[in-house]
Amino acid sequence: MTPQTEDLARIVSSAARLGVEVDEADALQWMVSIAAARAEQGQITQDEATGVFGHRVSMLDFSPADLAHFRAIGRIVEFEDAPDVETALALSGSAAQSKVQTYPGDCDYFERVNIIAPTRRAACDRLAILMREKVLATLQGPTYRFIEAKFGNHPADIERNGRLEKAGSPIAWSGAEVAAGEIRGKAPDGSEAVVRWDEVAGDPGWCKLDWVVADPVRDAVANASNMLDATWEAPDGSITPLDGYLDPYFQEVYLEADSIPLFSKLAEHVSDDALAEYVDQLEGEVRKYVAKDPRNYGKAAKRMYNIFRLNGRYAEAAYVRELFDEPAALLYQVHALIRTVDEAVQPGSGITLATVLAQLDRLVLDVVRTLEGAEEVEIVEHLQVFRHALASGGDAAVRTAAVEGSRAQVINLVNNFFHDKLVGMPEIAAYLDDVAGG
User: Fold this and answer.
1) What is the rounded distance in angstroms from the CA atom of residue 67 to the CA atom of residue 266?
2) Radius of gyration of the CA atoms of the chain, in A
């Protein structure tokens, strides 16, 4: 008996006890393939037919079936090359695992933005200009609406919209605030406080842009985000991450072969300890999601899958992989889409009401197919109130209450599903105990 068949026997045993369906042939093939991929020379591989490329382990989980769709959305969120700017756009998250994530959530992108400049400050200022121009160019269109940008860190405590934002925390900017170039709020002593876009450019921190996008052909809406890894290339050729950390490449699938030169240049500067550091980072996120309220075992499961497939725990990875194909896992997508549908109908959106209502109708059908009894009735009632408020132009407070109620119910069901299935496999239960106590 091979190590893979022994692992498969353990997976099947746990799955049978917990009512999880396992495609044994697919699971075995995946375990054999990932073991071979890790043993091959060179970490990066390219699909010659499509031009996409990435880490061998990541490419095993990517399907090109929706590549045209992701490239179309990519044209909305991506940054353009310029004489002093090099970019490489990739899929990340569930979008990069389309063979695994039968019910994906958002359209997550990751983009390397390398700025060639004489000084770090000049690179930071260029990044500030690039991001502001991108936001202003994509505030709204027939198939998208800008939601927010993360750029810079709060220089001091500030109260905004009834919430206290602590010094050093990432700054979230609305489209109007980006256009104005400033955020207004109150200092702890009650005086007026102003945070200016240009003034926080020297400490860009976590850089991320979010939109809600629609696909008129599919009558669907989704959240699309672009996480930036911005770097400064100095005149001597040295590379410096503007947030202090050069992200590794263990989860991205890059969309264009033209990005290979930039990717190769930056990959040379990734730490030799990048894999261990990446796994440590993911384990910190797992700990946060399972040991602190509010718990989110769905997000923990996604990170655990990446941990297990990278550190050689293939049996555990294959088991978690099967959970993403379970009908109840569809509720993870429902949870994300309720928020996205609400964003799509905010004032200023160019996305049609017909597209939003069609998406909402499919959400109702998905819930009906997945659940039964009182849970199904309660979530469907929330969604129907939400739909009526949208279709009739009704009270925004009623709509908000329906959104919050349905999302709370759904995330509770998602948590229960993933918790029960994860701890049902002894090896994963032991791992969670170890992480939570770490």
Assistant:
1) 24
2) 22
Strands 107-116 and 220-233: parallel
**What pLDDT does 347 receive?**
76
CA distance linking residue 186 with residue 168, whole number of Å: 16
Report the pLDDT value the prediction gives residue 228, as an integer from 0 to 100: 98
How confident is the model over 395-407, as pLDDT tens digits?
778 878 887 888 8
Long-range contacts of residues 261-266, Cβ cutoff 8 Å, at least 24 apart? 262/86, 262/87, 262/88, 262/112, 262/114, 263/44, 263/53, 263/88, 263/112, 265/114, 265/239, 266/88, 266/112, 266/114, 266/231, 266/239
What is the distance between the alpha carbons of residues 421 and 54, in angstroms, rounded to a whole number? 30
Instruction: Tell me how far apart the alpha carbons of residues 333 and 36 are, in angstroms, rounded to a whole number.
Output: 32
* Widest distance between CA atoms in the chain: 72
| Letter string b/e over residues 258-275, b meaning 16 or more CB atoms within 10 A of that residue's CB | ebbebbebbbeebeeeeb
Q: What angle, rounded to 10 degrees, do the helices at 24-39 and 314-323 form? A: 130
Query: Whole-prediction pTM value?
Result: 0.88
Q: Are 425 and 316 in contact (CB under 8 A)?
A: yes
Within its chain, how far is the Cα of 169 from the centroid? 20
What are 154-182's pLDDT values in tens digits?
Answer: 999 999 988 999 999 999 999 999 999 99
pLDDT level of residue 74 (50, 70, 90 thresholds): very high
Give the strand order in the sheet containing 163-165: 163-165, 158-160, 182-186, 192-196
Q: Measure Cα distances from 29 to 39, 200, 373 in Å.
A: 16, 50, 37
Helix 396-423 vs helix 330-344: crossing angle, to nearest 10: 160
Residue 139 has pLDDT above 90, yes or no: yes
